[in-house]
Amino acid sequence: MRYFKFKELIRSSKADEKGIDNFPKDAEIIDNLILVMENLDKIREEYGLPIYISSGYRCDELNKAVGGVSNS
Prior knowledge:
The chain is mostly helical. The protein has helices at 6-10, 13-18, 27-47, 60-65.
């Protein structure tokens, strides 16, 4: 990817703070995140300005820690 890195999608200060491993364990989720990055790269190229990711992926433990809904 030109503009986005996998690390950006799984980065979480709350996960760091709580010692939660937010790396996806499921290959299908990893494949989907790669597809998201590919599409974000295309959008970024067309848009011409930076796009900032605030939350690309949360494992169940992290989602609970931040008060996310169960089907998030």
